[in-house]
Amino acid sequence: MALDGSYQCISLPFESEGDLSAKQYYGVKGGTAAHQVVIATAGACRGIVQNDPSTGEVADVALLGPCKALVDGNAGAIAFGDPLTTDANGKLVKDTTDNKQICAIALEASTAANDIISAFALPGLRY
Predict the structure, then answer these.
(1) Are 16 and 57 spatial neighbours (Cβ–Cβ below 8 Å)?
(2) Cβ contacts of residue 7 below 8 Å, gap of 6+?
(3) Burial class (CB in 10 A: 0-12, 13-18, 19+), 52
């Protein structure tokens, strides 16, 4: 069940350094310039892009609060409350490493690849 209602997420607009039009709900990290974002690599997530911008367009990046996230539950079953980090392709996956920076907390379960679930963005939190 996706989040419905008037829940608020703190998000900021950044410029998409690359084409993110097929990467909605993926993890992103800082790009070349301070105001840019690119797809996150393994464990380097700093937010979750909520729209699908092309190169140079505004990327709406969730930084804190409820949002949607594209996960790979097939790589490891995700349960409610699990910490999420990014894989090498920017998808969110269950984090199984102690004391590592995470990107979000799962608000829904998933056991399938390319699921879109509700999550609580918390990039940079050590878990």
Answers:
(1) yes
(2) 65, 66
(3) middle
Domain that includes residue 14, residue range: 10-62
Around Cβ 121, how many Cβ atoms within 10 Å?
28
Same domain, 73 and 111: yes
Predicted TM-score of the model (pTM) = 0.91
Strands 47-49 and 104-106: unpaired
Instruction: Round to whole Å and give the CA distance between 119 and 65.
Output: 8
Identify whether residues 47 and 84 lie together within a single domain: no
Same structural domain, 55 and 71: no
**Which has the closest alpha carbon to 120: 61, 69, 60?**
69
The number of distinct structural domains making up the chain is 2
Q: Is residue 18 part of a domain?
A: yes
Tens-binned pLDDT, residue by residue, of the chain (127 aa): 455 556 789 999 999 999 999 999 999 999 999 899 999 999 889 999 999 999 999 999 999 999 999 999 888 999 999 999 999 999 999 998 877 789 999 999 999 999 999 999 998 887 7
